[in-house]
Amino acid sequence: MAILTTIYLYIYTFFAALLPGVSYNEGMLGQPQTFLPSHVVQQTDKAVSSLLYRGLFKYDIYGATVPDLAETWQVSDDGLVYTIKLKANQLWTNGKEINADDLIYTSFKVTDLSGVATDKVDDLTVRYTLPNKYSPFLSLLTVGIMPQNSEENNDPLHPVTSGDFRVARIEKSGKYIRQITLVSPNNKYDIQKISFRYYTNEDEILTAAKLGEINGYLLSEKKAPDNFYNYEFPVQGIYYALFFNIRNEKLSDVAVRQKLEKVIPLESFTAGQGIRVQGPVSRSVFTDLELEFDRYDPLFSEDLGDLSLTIRVPDIENHVIMAKQIASV
Q1: By the 8 A CB rule, do 98 and 86 touch?
Q2: Pairing relation of β-strands 166-173 and 65-67?
Q3: Listed residue (193, 214, 156) closest to 29, CA to CA
Q4: Same domain (yes/no): 195, 127
Q5: SS3 269
Q6: Closest CA to 74 of 143, 8, 11, 137
Q7: Beta bridge partners of 266
Q8: pLDDT one-digit tens code per residue, 178-223
Q9: pLDDT of residue 270
Q10: Is 244 a member of any domain?
Q11: At residue 277, does pLDDT exceed 80?
Q12: What is the residue range of 108's domain?
């Protein structure tokens, strides 16, 4: 799976979209296959699915896991048992209440939860029992919850859902889907209609962007007309960081740490694995883009004498490789 995805948004339209009643048109490559959380594979389908379904938890703008459908949760002392209670009166688009049976059905169908035992405590409460401790387990519960028998009874492109948006219209040309429109009855959103327009290749998407047919599009490579702004975000909501232990006498000197920043090419080290954060509040409307986030200087050269440092990382292949790359500088 590609770690990075790139979104391009037309600058003028981005700000206009903040005005009440404005719709948004996004260009998509290929054809939609399914929006069911248990079956979505394409990143474009996942983008739509995330608008249609709610999970027990969700990520906030800072990447932290916060409750969505979950009202309360408890973790056993040994870290193996999670007891989660649903909020009451949470409804599907068909008017039925979301209940524990839906959680159990979803757990049975979603691959990431296949090794987890799921038991019904009452109509709104489920107990998840893990085979081994896994501290980020709540992040797995951000997967969209499906109503019972979704795979068996629902149209994969027009299913019963629970999110703030729902499928309103599917437009076809012959056997091909040209546009899917989502609407939201929730007045808290400035954008209440989103149309996904499907194109057969990237050239068609770029042409549509230049003609103003779409306001944004999702691609894995950096391709954008001049009137679009490039926003990058990681698919995985996980941060990896290199921390300097300033209690170490060698690193207590800020000048030494600044020199290390200049000689470590993190951008090249992380290529294909993630994107660099932009400070503690990264890649959000609160990020100060005037700050300098990449201090690597390929022309910087200075003898650090007999300075030697120890890098400690978990015994995980990617971490070990990264540590060796940094040590080789």
Answers
A1: yes
A2: unpaired
A3: 214
A4: no
A5: helix
A6: 137
A7: none
A8: 999 999 987 777 888 999 999 999 899 989 988 989 988 877 666 7
A9: 76
A10: no
A11: no
A12: 57-145
Q: Is 161 found in the same domain as 228?
A: yes
User: For residues 119 and 230, what is the distance between their CA atoms, to the nearest angstrom?
Assistant: 45
Residues 191 and 224 in one domain: yes
Picking from 145, 173, 195, the residue at the C-terminal end of a domain is: 145
Domains in the chain: how many in total?
3
Residue 60 clears pLDDT 90, i.e. is over it:
no
Residue 7 CB-density burial (10 A; 0-12 exposed, 13-18 middle, 19+ buried): middle
Based on the domain organization, do 261 and 139 belong to the same domain?
no
Distance CA(147)–CA(97), nearest Å, equals: 9
Q: Both 88 and 41 in a single domain?
A: no
**What is 224-290 written as a DSSP string?**
--TTEEEEEEESS---------TTSGGGSSHHHHHHHHHH--HHHHTTTT-----SSS-SSTT--TT
- How many whole angstroms separate alpha carbon 92 and alpha carbon 150? 12
3-state secondary structure (DSSP) of residue 325:
helix
Average pLDDT, the chain: 84
Final residue before a domain boundary, out of 118, 145, 172:
145
How far CA 39 is from CA of 27, 104, 155, in Å, comes to: 22, 16, 12
Same domain, 89 and 225: no
> Which tokens in the block code for residue 93?
């688009």
With respect to residue 273, please indicate whether it lies within any of the assigned structural domains. Answer: yes
Sort 59 into a burial class: Cβ within 10 Å, 0-12 / 13-18 / 19+: middle
Give CA–CA dist 199/121, Å, rounded: 47
CATH number at 184 reads: 3.40.190.10
DSSP structure class, residue 136: T
Per DSSP bridges, beta strands 216-219 and 24-29 are parallel
Are 21 and 170 contained in the same domain?
A: yes
**How much is the pTM?**
0.68
Q: For residue 28, give the amino acid letter.
A: M
The torsion angles phi and psi of 113, rounded to 5 degrees, stand at: -110, 10
φ, ψ of residue 140 to 5 degrees: the values are -70, -25
For the chain, the maximum distance between any two Cα atoms, rounded to a whole number of angstroms, is 71
